[in-house]
Write a structure and sequence with these properties.
This protein has about 400 residues and is α/β, with parallel strands linked by helices. The chain has helices spanning about 5-15, 20-30, 40-55, 65-75, 80-85, 85-90, 100-110, 130-135, 155-160, 190, 200-205, 225-235, 250-260, 310-315, 320-335, 355-365, and strands at about 145-150, 170, 175-180, 195-200, 215-220, 240-245, 265-270, 290-295, 335-345, 370-375, 385-394. The chain folds into three domains: about 5-120, no CATH class; about 145-200, Alpha-Beta Plaits (2-Layer Sandwich); about 200-394, 3-Layer(aba) Sandwich (Rossmann fold), CATH 3.40.50.
Length: about 400
């Protein structure tokens, strides 16, 4: 597809998208444009995502200019393409092909990036986060991080190499590798046999807070798709695992994921932990647990580099609503801990009110003793930002 036509298709997609998820919208949009080949769809999809990555940096620019700026800033590997077709349109004669400092060139042309309004409620982002690194990471597509099951690392790598799939390793964790987003994993035996799972690098590293022991009773209270449970079980297969979520359909997906990973010895239930006594009504569950993982519902602001459209859609007023719900959930769960038991409070938020603010409120409860808290920020490694805190039941 000629670049001018590709730009036209990109602008059509941007005009058609109103609200929701770009990842859900684009397949349907492309289906209504059957003249586009698979490569064209990939390219236009990348243009659309990158336009959303930069639009809040340059709100005064029109959509075409935002598309060009998105390609220029978010896809440095496409420099030749950019120089050949678009540089003069955006920069005029001021373009210098040898220019390596992209931000310096933008400044010279008067295109100052508006970081101060880029991130919703940026003043509410925790001071513990490396903010410049965090903000600039939103211009880069996240890596697809995988967690290899303990003892299966070499066999997974061997199969990836045999399939010609490039991957990156990291010194942060010998069980973590990253592949290119969109990599087809389903045909691999390692995927089919549950030897690896998609899990962000920061999400993998929150396991440092778990420290499980054999025969302990663990509750994954807001289990979602079960990633934290699978991480826990990989660390200590001999724990007794119980999982809950407020959504029945999510638990069905969790069951299929557990089945593929060979995890069958667990109990599950649909529970709304904001309801007083809801957990105690589960007859098949123990009355008290040795440890509870509370990966509570949150703004998700630590993961928005994956979904740049959310930057426009998020209402900062909901931060306080999330924080209130998070506190109520964690407070209810504290009653289900045995003496000396551990509550692990987790979010994927960057906002102080959802993290340190909730921890401060929990710390004054007479039944809990605060132990530690930390951010897991791996923005430069193409990962998300997560927060974790540990409490003990007195």
């Amino acid at each position: 597809m000629h670049p001018d036509l590709r730009m036209t298709q990109t602008l059509q997609a941007l005009k058609a998208f109103r609200h929701g998820s770009l990842a859900s919208f684009l397949p349907g949009h492309f289906k209504s444009h059957p003249n586009m080949g698979s490569r064209d769809r990939r390219e236009v999809g990348a243009f659309v995502f990158d336009a959303y990555r930069v639009k809040r940096l340059f709100p005064e620019r029109n959509k075409e200019e935002q598309v060009l700026l998105g390609r220029y800033l978010c896809q440095p590997q496409e420099a030749d393409f950019f120089v050949q077709f678009w540089s003069e349109k955006l920069f005029g004669t001021a373009w210098e092909q040898g220019e390596t400092d992209r931000w310096a060139l933008l400044e010279k042309l008067g295109l100052k990036a508006g970081w101060e309004q880029y991130f919703p409620a940026s003043e509410a982002v925790s001071a513990a986060i490396r903010k410049e690194e965090f903000l600039q990471s939103h211009l880069l597509q996240r890596k697809l991080w995988l967690r290899m099951r303990r003892g299966k690392e070499q066999s997974v790598k061997n199969e990836l190499e045999k399939a010609g799939i490039a991957f990156e390793t990291t010194e942060i964790s010998h069980q973590a590798i990253a592949v290119k987003p969109g990599t087809k994993l389903e045909p691999l035996q390692a995927w089919q046999q549950g030897k690896m799972e998609v899990q962000d690098i920061s999400s993998q590293l929150v396991g440092q807070l778990f420290e499980p022991k054999a025969s302990e009773r663990w509750l994954d209270a807001c289990a979602g798709a079960g990633g934290k449970s699978l991480l826990l079980q990989d660390m200590e297969p001999a724990v007794s695992l119980f999982v809950t979520d407020v959504r029945d359909n999510i638990l069905k997906n969790l069951h299929e994921r557990f089945k593929k990973a060979g995890l069958r010895n667990y109990s599950q239930a649909v529970v709304d932990h904001t309801v007083l006594g809801a957990l105690s009504m589960q007859k098949s569950f123990p009355k008290q647990f040795d440890a509870i993982i509370a990966d509570v519902p949150c703004s998700g602001s630590g993961t928005w580099a994956n979904t740049p459209e959310v930057l426009d859609q998020f209402d900062p007023k909901t931060i306080a609503e999330f924080a209130d719900k998070q506190y109520r959930i964690a407070k209810q769960l504290a009653y289900a801990l045995k003496s000396g038991g551990k509550l692990i409070y987790l979010t994927c938020s960057a906002y102080t009110e959802e993290n340190e603010g909730v921890v401060e409120k929990l710390s004054v409860l007479p039944e809990l003793k605060f132990e530690k808290q930390q951010y897991f920020q791996h923005s430069t490694e193409g990962g998300d930002v997560l927060f974790g805190a540990v409490f003990r039941k007195k």
